[in-house]
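dude i think i finally got it to work??
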Amino acid sequence: MATPYPRTRQQNGPNARTAPRTVLVTGAGSGIGRATAHAFADEGAHVVAVGRREAPLVETAGHDPSRISPLVADITAADGPETVVRTALDRHGRLDVLVNNAGLVNGRSLRTYTRATVDPLLATNLLAPVLLTQAALPALEDSRGVIVNVTTSVGQRGWPGNSLYAAGKAALEVLTRSWAVELAPLGIRVAAVAPGAIDTPIGDHAGLAPEQQAAIRAWQLDHTPLGRIGRPEEVAWAIARLASPRASFITGVILPVDGGAVVA
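look at this
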């Protein structure tokens, strides 16, 4: 891939001294993505907050407009990944952390899937992270950067009625481990967080009725040893820690943030 911007390799490690990092977060208009944008901004990073709707992104950026800049873009569009990466570089001249957070749920079962419902799920949850990561590789190699994928703890167990979402996220975990090995010689670390039951509006975005969401929450609580729903800020904390220079010897890990659901 051609790289029309200057390549300026950065020092990476727990004691590295660099300019403020640039962090690109997809799905930053709400939930985990918004909390992640806020967490990195609070650490002094420049954050490019990506999403499809302008108003939620502006609200995200309102936390610290000097640190967070909205970018309205469709990462599933043919030119989406290149546009997003190019914009981040145009704004800040570097890219240090890519957070593949955007996700789509539709709550359908095997009997009701159609190509029209399957394609958007795979495009958002699996194909977009692949192509966005590919587009970001030259910049991440220059900065010896970090990729953090957001998966789901449900990917490690059955989820009837939403199996394709879980399958796509499970595939992203395989990619996380594979990329960690593949990109290590370039100085790029790759990790993932696997949230469990988190208080986000993803159910609303999926068009689930209130009674459906209540049933899902009840099931989640029954399978969460800590006995509560997690907060987006708790997942964002884990993402920021994995991306920290102090985590410079951590790669290939899938970190559950699920109140113990995976081990229950």
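The chain has a mean pLDDT of 90.
im so relieved honestly
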